[in-house]
Write a structure and sequence with these properties.
Low-confidence stretches: 34-52, 54-82, 230-244, 275-288
Number of strands: 22
Mean pLDDT: 77
Structural class: alpha/beta
Largest sheet: 6 strands, parallel
Shape: elongated
Number of helices: 18
Distance between the termini: 15 Å
Oligomer: single chain
Strand order of the largest sheet: 3-2-1-4-5-6
Helix content: 25-40%
Strand content: 15-25%
Length: 611
Amino acid sequence: MVVCGDDGLAHRLAAELRGVHGEQVTLVVPPNERTARPPVVGRARAASAALLDRVVNAAVGRGTGNGPGGTTGNGTVAGRPDGERVLEAAELTEAVLAEAGVEQATALALVHDDDETNIRAALTARRLNPRLRLVLRLYNRRLGQHIEELLDQTAALAYGAGAAGPEASTTVLSDADTAAPALAAAAVAGTTKVVQTDSLLLRAVERLPAADGQLADPGLCTLALLSETGADPAGADESEGNGEQGPLLLPDDEEVRQATGRAAVVLEQVSSFGGPASAATGRGVGGVPPLSSLFSRRLRWSLAGLVGCVVALAVALWLVTGIHPLRAFYLTLLDMFAIDDPALGESLGRQILQLLSGLMGLLLLPVLLAAVLEALGTFRTASALRKPPRGLGGHVVLLGLGKIGTRVLTRLRELHIPVVCVESDPEARGLATARRLRVPVVLGDVTQEGVLEAAKIHRAHALLAVTSADTTNLEAVLYARSVRPDLRVVLRLYDDDFATAVYRTLRAAHPQASTRSRSVSHLAAPAFAGAMLGRQVLGAIPVERRVLLVASVEVAGHAELEGRSVAEAFRAGAFRVLALEGRADVPGDYVLRKGDRVVVAATRRGLAELR
């Protein structure tokens, strides 16, 4: 296996392939990546350690020494597997790829942060080895579809139609798309975790125990039992062993019965899915604003009051004169617009109603003018960023509108969750998405005083910090907790050891509040590793600081699956068959046979066992 990248995803992917799947890996990184993490992260870790010491002293009252699981501060990459081959190259030229062994490799992963770099290297690698399995990291999903078709077609032409086989497959993935659902779900308690296949929708949800300690609704099956404290256990993200300290992945029925008082992640529903077109239907998020957004509430109430007065005057004219109701309504409108003859010689009631109708017409003029001005103002500001409304509350404050933040924002709006974004860069890529979705945005440095207040942090439901700088995320969370100690917070932190130290400190300082730390590379690496091994990883379900993978697997050639029933195709702590592709209702006694394709939930090592 060959992995080429310039950030943490490349290092984690290489460790995943070697440590979990036992593969021989060649890692190709820029010259400054072999012995050090990305420079911005190295600077962030030193500054973040100082902030962490302050919060330890102020909130917990402990010493400032390095806690267990802390970082050494030297910026070196720790825990690299012995014997891993590392190549340093500033650019991925044909010579560099040849030296990395692409011509004899089984799979190549190109996970640079720049799409153009990955595409150029993929074209070169496909020419060197048409049978190579390619995995690309691309943020542009539409371009990724075209590149995938192009590279597969190139492999087919090199060996004739159909001769290249499955080994020459091309898979385009996005770490942002993989991690965004998990980050959004962590920010909103009770959010359903959805995994989508070509024909099925699988919904997993977190269930709390009932009064007797058992699950009130176990769903279709139990995917995981959460830790007894209900919180992320420190250091549990790297361990694949189930135990009492951390979450229990894919437990059997006996373990579920014995686990009294523990919350669980259960499979709630498996339903048929109509394809991508149906996913876009009913999202309620589009570029066309609703009609009610054209006018303010005060103006709408004014217009409604005038309409009510007109109806009342028409009814009064009908009762006073005895004419037809439609004629009475017509005469009232004529009097309002001052185009009817004076009611000379008419009854006193008719004359009074005509005067009142004229008065209503005078009152209508400023209301109509205000409506025109508000409509024009709405269209003029449609391309501008919205400010948070005054009475906003119960929303999610999202820090950062980069690659990850943009995908998280889209996911939150698909769930119809109110969001306020905070971004320091006026040219950030996510601002266009926020403008299209009509999401309020606060432009400013979140570390400056008054920025989080402008985002209504004191009335927010959760804070989701997903900027690329650890210091920014940590400082924002610490300040937000000083304003709202019970605020639910989710941090994106690069370094796992540092994330563990931050988690321990925040949990100790605010034991009643919900704290979650997530690593994008930790969530995305299993999907990239599965694709390199020929597995179609459909999604990742975060279980505290561990990951449960959902993958599509061919039954043929797997002794653990072929010839067994759906209920028997289960190994506790490793894998479980959830559904059959194309069928939402599969009985437990259905016998899997060659030609079937199943959707399985698996741990990282469990997926490796299904090779």
